[in-house]
């Protein structure tokens, strides 16, 4: 298997979390398999998550931490985002990172459009993986919520800027896991990491 440059973003804002453990399991296995890995923990980053006064013309300057996130994405061939689902969506700080860092001119081009009329993506040539942790059973997530969060992070965020295809792995029932579930999830993340998938 060819080596890949993998960028992993642990999108949980707490210093210790199951999401962080899943991201680390993926990272450790990928490194052991010979891949180049860069791992960022959201809780280590200091930045203003509010887009605030910024606009496409008058952009708020990026903090060094956000510049590094962009540099790591640009360096990578495969982007992995590990995130919990909170209130049906992304944690506010993680959403703030996307709001602030994924800007026109750097990650997409509003002056050029695709065949569908969307802004041209600028981060093409990269694949993606989302590791999504939630309490909601998978079937309920599909039937009642229509996979809304998956559509958001997979299609409206990552694929929008050119990272595609993006595969999604769900870990459900994470607040009160059954016996053996955590070990199973960590092994599953490691298996995917070793394959750089």
Automatic annotation (TrEMBL):
Location of the Flavodoxin-like fold domain: 4-190
Q: Which UniProt keywords apply?
A: Oxidoreductase
UniProt KW Oxidoreductase keyword? yes
Q: Which Pfam families match?
A: Flavodoxin_2
Tell me the superkingdom of the source.
Answer: Bacteria
The family assignment reads: Belongs to the NAD(P)H dehydrogenase (quinone) family.
Official protein name in the record: NADPH-quinone reductase (Modulator of drug activity B)
Q: Which organism is it from?
A: Shimia sagamensis
């Amino acid at each position: 298997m060819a080596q890949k440059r993998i960028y992993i973003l642990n999108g949980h804002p707490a210093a210790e979390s199951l999401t962080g453990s899943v991201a680390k399991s993926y990272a450790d296995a990928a490194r052991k398999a010979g891949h180049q890995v860069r791992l960022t923990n959201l809780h280590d980053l200091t930045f203003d998550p509010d887009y605030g006064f910024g606009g496409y013309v008058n952009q708020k300057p990026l903090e060094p931490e956000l510049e590094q996130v962009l540099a790591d994405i640009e360096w990578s061939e495969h982007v992995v985002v590990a995130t919990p689902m909170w209130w049906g969506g992304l944690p506010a700080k993680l959403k703030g990172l996307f709001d602030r860092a994924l800007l026109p001119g750097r990650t997409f081009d509003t002056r050029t459009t695709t065949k569908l009329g969307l802004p041209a993506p600028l981060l093409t040539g990269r694949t993606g993986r989302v590791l999504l942790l939630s309490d909601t059973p998978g079937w309920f997530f599909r039937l009642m919520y229509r996979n809304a969060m998956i559509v958001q992070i997979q299609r409206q965020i990552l694929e929008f800027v050119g990272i595609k295809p993006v595969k999604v792995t769900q870990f459900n029932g994470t607040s009160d896991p059954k016996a053996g579930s955590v070990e199973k999830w960590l092994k599953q993340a490691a298996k995917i990491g070793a394959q750089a998938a």
